[in-house]
Amino acid sequence: QVQLVESGGGLVQAGGSLRLSCAASGSIFSFATLNWHRQAPGKQRELVTSTGSTGRTTYADSVKGRFTISRDGAKNTMYLQMDSLNPEDTGVYYCNAFVAAKGADFWGQGTQVTVSS
């Protein structure tokens, strides 16, 4: 069973930046679809960004131009670079890796991001 461990969350002022990391216990990132989700207080979890093994990447409209997803297969780590943060970005961020060939879906424990105005 692959485990995903997130880090990098915290408190930041509006306009600031954070980089989230998600490290996997196994070598799956090079062929998995990688996603970052977030859940704001009182709201449903939403997909923030997704990148496939071919490199095709999508972003939610609310984060386009501000957030960047990336992966380092050699380090079994994925990242979410978040710039120009605003209070609406506050929430718990979850990394997720989906391996279609195995029907396997792995999730991190979540990391809190709080953006103050």
Question: Could you outline the blueprint of secondary structure elements for this entry?
Answer:
Blueprint: E1 4-7, E2 10-13, E3 18-24, E4 33-39, E5 46-51, E6 57-59, E7 67-72, E8 77-82, E9 91-99, E10 104-107, E11 111-116
Parallel strand pairs: 2-11
Antiparallel strand pairs: 1-3, 3-8, 4-5, 4-9, 5-6, 7-8, 9-10, 9-11
Terminal Cα separation, in Å? 40 Å
**Structural class assignment:** mainly beta
Counting H and I runs of at least 4 residues, what is the number of helices?
A: 0
User: Could you give the count of β-strands?
Assistant: 11
**Uncertain spans:** none
- Overall outline: globular
- Rounded to an integer in angstroms, the radius of gyration calculated over CA atoms is 14 Å
Tell me, rounded to a whole number, the average pLDDT: 95
Main β-sheet description:
7 strands, mixed
Helix content: under 10%
Range of strand content:
over 45%
Order of helices and strands: EEEEEEEEEEE
Descriptive tags:
single chain; 117 residues; mainly beta; seven-stranded mixed β-sheet; four-stranded antiparallel β-sheet; globular
Give a verbal description of the structure.
The protein is mainly beta. The protein is built from no helices and eleven strands. Strands 2, 4, 5, 6, 9, 10 and 11 form a seven-stranded mixed beta sheet that branches. Strands 1-3-8-7 form a four-stranded antiparallel beta sheet, with no helix packed on it. A hairpin with a 4-residue loop joins strand 7 and strand 8 (77-82). The protein starts with a strand and ends with a strand.
